[in-house]
Amino acid sequence: VSKTKKPKISQDKSLGLSSKILRRDFLNSTLLGAGSALFSMSSPIALSAGSSINDELYMNLPQQVKDDWYGYGGIGDSKESHGNTPDTLKVAHAVRDSAFNLENIKNLNVLEQYDLVIIGAGLSGLGAAQRLKELDPNKKCLILDNHPIFGGEAKRNEFNIKGQVIAAPQGSNSFYYKTKYDFDEDRKYIKLLNIPDEFSYGEMVNNSKKLVFAQENYDVQMWGEELISKGHFVDEQSHDIDSQWIKNIWKDKLKRYPVSEKVRNDLLTWKYTKDMPKDDDKTNAWLDNMTYKDYIENVMGLDEEVTKFADPVLASSGGMGCDVMSAYIARLLGMYGVSPDAPVDPKKRHSFPGGNDGFARHFIKWLIPHAIHGDNNFEDIMNHPINFQGLDHPDNSVRCRLNSNVVNVAHTNSGDNKSSVEVTYYKKGKLFKVKSKAVVMATGGWINKYIVKDLPRSHYDAYNRFNHAPMLVANVALTNWRFLHRLGITACQWTGGFGFHTNIRKPMHVGNDKPSLDPNNPIVLTFYVSFEKANQGYTAEQQSRLGQYEMLAKPYIEYEREIRQQMVKMFANSGFDVQNDIAGIILNRWGHAYVTPTPGFFYNTEGGPGYANIIKSTPFGRISFGHSELRGYQHWGPAAAEGSRAVDQISHYL
Ligand SMILES: Cc1cc2nc3c(=O)[nH]c(=O)nc-3n(C[C@H](O)[C@H](O)[C@H](O)COP(=O)(O)OP(=O)(O)OC[C@H]3O[C@@H](n4cnc5c(N)ncnc54)[C@H](O)[C@@H]3O)c2cc1C
């Protein structure tokens, strides 16, 4: 990790770092003197000596980060839960470092008994609970999640900007519907949860420039960009040219885009080729045993610059670049050359105001009708506050318990005679134990291998081959977007610096909440920032570690500085006022955002099932594994279906 020079205070002032914005609530030290975060990636964690063994064991785990790390969380129900919290970091790393004493855990009393315990309240955990309730609504189920709010990657941030409440996604962003790409699972859940299948969005008043807006943040990063008013920013650093915006680069076959003739032709071949590999098992297995970089450069014979162009887009959807991700996952993610260039009609790409938290909220309402105040309709489910007490009420058949970090999952008997499972979790400094007939692990590979005791070697080895990529999702609230209007663009892409893409999302109408688009009014820009280290010779595992370290080690203020510098560079000439236009910034840091399928994830070299399959197909006694990573391609409906499948695998125990 390279060291950066400390910026001068005068530079910070001109960047508006001393302006009054929504950011300071959690910064205990003075802003400009904030120290760097402490992040002990590998140091062993010692427990405080002499912890007594009782039902409420106090664990004095050291904090992983300082007060200047987390930053502002916005308003509303998710204000204390944006990205991974300091508490989840603390406990997860203590688990990794074997800080919990197994003898102590063994001696804890069981406090409650359930038919099924589900670990993880993301979409896969919620899908698991939905399946159980469908099979038998009287079964007693407990969902445990380590964050202060359910949803996993599908959560929202909310800002109050000049009296206007605007939501934005913390992670999972969008969905498509009524397209040929729909997953059957998406359709099934949209119907089951009674989610509307038509949506309306705010339009721009007085749109004399005929600006076209995306309805979400992903398709516009590449596939649908020709259909949107998008500009690419190029400058001396990125392209050895005076800084400028180039609008709609594909319109004239990249003539205005500053690359060599060869690279231009190769980029066009990559994007428009009709020569696709077949879509059968044999071909897919072949694709899954090479990297996407291999495919672009060796199979298609294109320039390395094409790979570099593709890197940030692939990383935005899968966490890492073309040099480690398989060509088959690239195909599943719709990358050019392996997947036809057929953009989904942008009107069929949707994003709820807070991203896919809309699905999580519908699931929880279906499972626990009083979990969200108000009636069972779209508007109330989306806009009403969560009834946190009702989530874990003893009368519920499904209970959802938050802030509960599971640290140990163990069968009560070893060998073939596995009669139940005990689950131990850490909550606010204490350990608790519950017992269940069976358990679904709806979490992620990075943690399952540490918390499931006596995990079979086959599963452990398979999980060890999973690599996880971090992502930072930064939501930047703006008082206005006149600078974009002046430029005549609604979406922006650039190379180098902070992030690579951002765009205005049309606001979805929810009930009577019907915002429109006006450059003089507030918006939130979402930046999806990967930490890919492509083309530097690192393995996926090294890229994962380096990326996680880089993302987690910086204090909030450093990201704020980078965001401001990036925006000044691109927008100052069109009137962006860095001292006044930013109203607030929320950082959502996800340490294990995506699993990054490397070659062999889906298919082995003989064309048989790949390394993820053993975990998916084989429960360990009464413990089954159902999380979105096991599909490789992480998507909301299939995530819920993975949870559902995991319930079916152990339902005979219930
Ligand atoms: C940046 C980003 C953007 C994305 N965009 C989209 C998109 O636009 N559309 C789309 O369909 N999908 C998107 N996804 C994919 C998304 O991850 C899946 O769709 C889905 O939401 C994942 O659900 P999950 O339940 O498998 O995992 P998660 O959402 O990660 O849920 C797992 C839960 O388990 C909890 N947990 C972990 N360990 C423990 C423990 N020890 N104890 C208790 N709880 C624990 C976690 O904190 C989390 O709450 C995106 C993902 C990321 C990272």
Automatic annotation (TrEMBL):
Read off the Gene3D superfamilies from this record: FAD/NAD(P)-binding domain
Among Pfam families, the record links this protein to: NAD_binding_8 (PF13450)
Listed InterPro entries: FAD/NAD-bd_sf
Name of this protein: Amine oxidase domain-containing protein
Originating organism = marine metagenome
Q: What is the lineage of its organism?
A: unclassified sequences, metagenomes, ecological metagenomes
